[in-house]
Amino acid sequence: MHSPVAEGECTTCHNPHSSANKNLLIQPTSGGPSENLCLTCHDTGVQVAAKGSRHAALDLGCDTCHVTHKTGDAGQQEFAFHLSASVPDLCLTCHDAAGPEIKKAHANQPITKTNCTSCHNPHAGESAKLTYGFAHPPFAERQCDACHEAPKDNKIALVEGGGRALCYLCHDAIQSQIASAKQVHGVFKQADTCTNCHSPHATAYPQHLKQPLVALCESCHAQQAEQQTTKKFLHPPAFQAGCTVCHEPHASDYAGRLRAGINELCMSCHASDAQGEASSDPKNLVLFGGTVRLPGDYLASVKRLPLRKGAVAGHPMANHPVEGKADPSNPEKPLTCVACHNPHAGNGSQRMFVTETRSSSPLCIRCHK
Q1: Is the distance from CB of 350 to CB of 240 less than 8 angstroms?
Q2: Residues of the chain above pLDDT 90, percent
Q3: Residue 136 · residue 146 · CB < 8 Å
Q4: Three-state DSSP class for 196?
């Protein structure tokens, strides 16, 4: 439900006494930012990239595509965005899928059942034709035949029948990684496709992800995320920079698909001598052989420990071991950073003790009874 409606704030949009606009609206729903009622809350389509594009329908007014009071299942795009019809039916009220220009642009592939907004921003795009800013190279270079065959029975056809076999034609390094790794992402056992996570055409997110990184991971790991995000203190790499700072998204030789052993992973940011790896771009902080790139000043806000990389003792006091011994509270596991600290979130302290306490005393007593 549209927020002002849900909150009962009708006068946010309507003049209760009189107005020169339809439905007693305070302002019309078309025109520029200073006169469009919708743009007093939304800035969609106002700022267009220098080499970008803008949907002409914006000039006709927001109610060309949206119904202000429409309610329904927010899990469906039509209701989530208050659309007057579902996609692609809404798009096809203006755009003729059988028109020669559109057919040529889409390599004569049948598109009447596709989701137009998976490639095109309905308001303004970072590139021409409302396309998103991160485009898969074959799509960006109009090399449709790299992935598509001619339509069959009026259906879209893919080379190699689609699935991961098609993606592996170019991404053989990922194929090798998955084949040789000890820990493989479960999604590869559930479906023979990379498009669960990645758009094969264009997207608004790096690595051609279909959603922002954290949201994408949470779409499958919702229960784990809920258990963590309800806590008071959140570890920034997990819920801000993104899960793949620490976890390999495809496969790894480490438990939990970590990018390195637990202590090596933690010390890549928290060691006193942590500084990232050599990079040709000073704007980026590079970690783990270039597989992780963060803002260049990222480590400036990270809590540093009085430990150098590879240290086996020295935290939380000089001779205290940090690895190379069994965890006294769980002798079946080695002593690592996560024996004492939750790597995702915690309640008692910013130090995110596994005991969920503000004081470290309950944590120490687990071993030093």
Answers
A1: no
A2: 66
A3: no
A4: coil
Q: Phi/psi at 99 (nearest 5 deg)?
A: -70, 145
The phi, psi pair for 19, rounded to 5°, reads: -160, 150
Does residue 355 contact residue 348 with C-beta atoms inside 8 Å? yes
Rg for the chain, CA atoms, rounded: 26
Q: Are 277 and 290 in contact (CB under 8 A)?
A: yes
**pLDDT for the residue 31:** 82
Cis before 88? omega within 30: yes
Tokens found for residue 79: 């209701």
Residue 125 burial by Cβ neighbours in a 10 Å radius (0-12, 13-18, 19+): buried
Relative to beta strand 251-252, strand 233-234 is unpaired
> Where do the domains of the chain lie?
1-101, 211-367
> What local confidence, expressed as pLDDT, does residue 86 receive?
93
326 strand-pairing partners: 334
> In this structure, what token pair is assigned to residue 180?
């040789």
Q: Are strands 326-327 and 134-135 parallel, antiparallel or unpaired?
A: unpaired
Q: What is the average pLDDT across 97-126? A: 91
Lookup result for tokens 């690592």: 336
DSSP structural state of residue 150: E
What pLDDT was estimated at residue 75? 81
Contact yes or no for 187/196 (Cβ under 8 A): yes
pLDDT score of 225:
85
Instruction: Phi first, then psi: give them for residue 270, nearest 5 degrees.
Output: -95, -10
Name the token pair of 207: 């690595």
Phi (first) and psi of residue 184, to 5 degrees: -120, 140
Token couple for 146: 């790299």
pLDDT in tens, 31-50: 877 888 998 888 888 888 88
- Among candidate residues 309, 168, 187, the one with its CA nearest the CA of residue 257: 187
- Cα–Cα distance for residue pair 228/239, rounded to 1 Å: 10
Query: For the segment 216-267, what is each residue's pLDDT rounded down to a tens digit?
Result: 999 999 888 888 888 999 999 888 889 999 999 999 999 999 999 999 999 9
Output the pLDDT for position 29.
87
